[in-house]
Amino acid sequence: MIIVTGATGKLGRRIVERLVHRVPADRVGLSVRDPRKAQDLADRGVRVRQGNFDDPASLAHSFEGAEQLLLVSLDRTGQECVSGHRAAIDAAVQVGVDRILYTSQMGAARDSRFQACRDHARTEDLLRATGLPWTALRNGFYASSALQFLESARHTGDIALPADGPVAWTGHDDLAEATAAILAGEARFEGPTPPLTGPAALDFATVAEIASQTTGRPFTRTVVPDGAFREQVLAHGTPAPIADLMLSIFAAARNGEFTAVDSTLAGLIGREPATFRTQLERAWAD
């Protein structure tokens, strides 16, 4: 059986939807905080059990019978994130999972400027220490993050953000397709995968050009000092830890941590991944 955590989230739901087209539904199990949100999948024959990262016993129960476990990274940071991942990994070892797969990120490293990448690196260390076969899916930076950063610019025409560097923005749909293919046995990786990225690394100056071409409206790129940006987002009610996390993305981008572009994702899904232009067009079509 293939067990997927976080299966009602943005990435996890997409993975499961693609996985059940590749393997029988009764070979798929979900570990979710609220099983009611996965009732439609249960109705299709998928096993759904409650699993809470703060309740190790519930994780062990939801992982029972797993040959493969896909650990979708938690939407937490720092020690809280790594502790949750440790609880899931320990539960997987306890119930005898054969292989653990984990949604990591390109640039995962203990010395990354981006907190999430440091958390991913620590989680990969935990996986390595189990002695089990494991795979870290080094996902490209989610394009949805770039789209969130652009939300204000969509209305003002000015991309006013801190100094950045090229980022290989990558779509959830393509990453979900690749993950489902790996879980279904269409490909196998030991340890970290190559970066699973979109077809190009773009900075926000280039994104401004793409936005102009897509909409037919002029877009400018204004570089905002880090301190001023932090004050702006705090003034809009963003908690200080989140503001600092946002700034760390730009610091890591300036450090060249997200520039890699690799063909592995294209090979897994059998086509070129969606360009950022395509994703912008889809998002702004509403």
UniProtKB/TrEMBL annotation:
CDD domains recorded: TMR_SDR_a (cd05269)
Domain NmrA-like residue range list: 2-263
Tree of life domain: Bacteria
Gene3D superfamilies: NAD(P)-binding Rossmann-like Domain (3.40.50.720), UDP-galactose 4-epimerase, domain 1 (3.90.25.10)
Name this protein carries in UniProt: NAD(P)-dependent oxidoreductase
Lineage start: Bacteria, Bacillati, Actinomycetota, Actinomycetes, Kitasatosporales
